[in-house]
Amino acid sequence: MEVANSIIVWASLLTGSLFAVIGGIGVLRLPDVYTRLHGAGITDTMGAGLILFGLAVHEGFTLITVKLVLIFIFLIITSPASSNAVANAAHSSGLRPMLDSDLKNKASSNSGARS
Amino acid sequence: MIHAASLALALAAVWLLLSGHTDFLLLGLGAASVFGVVLIALRMDVVDHEGQPVHMGLRLIAYYPWLGWEIIKANWDVARQIIDPKLPISPTLTSIKSTQRTELGQVMFANSITLTPGTVSVRVLPGEILVHALSKNGADDLVTGRMDRRVSAIEGPEPDSDIGKEPG
Lengths: 115, 168
Hints:
Chain A has 4 helices and no strands. Chain A is an all-alpha fold and 115 residues long. In chain A, helix 1 packs antiparallel against helix 2 (33-59) and helix 2 runs antiparallel to helix 3. The mean pLDDT of chain A is 86. Chain B is 57% helix and 11% strand. Chain B has helices at 2-19, 24-44, 57-83, 103-115, 136-143, 146-154, and strands spanning 92-97, 119-125, 128-133. Chain B has a 3-stranded antiparallel beta sheet with strand order 1-3-2. The model of chain B has no long low-confidence stretch (mean pLDDT 86). Chains A and B meet through helix 1, helix 2 and helix 3 of A and helix 1, helix 3, helix 4 and strand 2 of B.
C-alpha cells in the first residue's frame, strides 16, 4: 500500500514535470505569440495538474489536500482568462497570426535561398 | 435568495477548510465574517446566477470530468507536436459557432476552448468565437460542435437569452 502510494506520487510528479518542460520547449520552439500560448497551456493544465495531483496523493485526506484542490480550481479559472487576455490584446493591436500557408511559404523560400 | 445562501455556504466551507479551527470563538468570528461578506456582496448587487450558478447544479459537475478527459487527450497531441523535430504544426484561425443563450454559457465555452491545449479563444462575439488553433485537426474538432453542444446542454432547458444586453 505504502509502496503503491509512493509509485503514484512519483509517477505523477515526474510526468507533471516532464509536461511542464515540454510546455517550456514549446514556448521556445513555436513561431509566434498565438502558437506559443498553446505551449504555455500544456504547463498550465497537465504540468501543474499532475504535480498538484501527486502532492495531494502524498498528503492523503488532510486539510493540505483541500488547499491543493483550491489551488487547482483557481488555476483552471484564471489561466484561460489570462491566455485569452494575451490573445485578445495581440489580436486587437492588429498582430496577424502566422498561419499554415505563411509557414509553408517561409519554408519554401528558405530552401530556395539555400539551393 | 438561493444565490445568497449558496454564497454563504461556499464562504463558510472555504473558511473552515482553510483555517481548520473548531473552537467556539474563532467559529463565531468566522460566521460573522461570512455574514458580513454576504451583506456587502448583496449591497454591491453581485450575488446572482452568474456568480452562483446553482441552476446548473449537477449538470455542471458532470461536465468537468468530460472536459478533463478532453484536456488530457489534447495535451498529449500538442506535446507530441512540440517535441517532434519536424514541428508539424498548421496554425489556423477559425470562427466557431456558439449556440449558448447566456453570457455565462458563452464564457464557459470560451474558457473550455482555451483550457484545452492547442486551441485558444481570441475574441468572443455574439453567436461566434474566434479561435486560434495550433493544428488543423484541433480546429476541425471544434467545428464539429461537440464541445459547443455539451456546454449548451448545461445551460438547461429554456434559459432567457442575455447576450448583447447591457448588464442590468
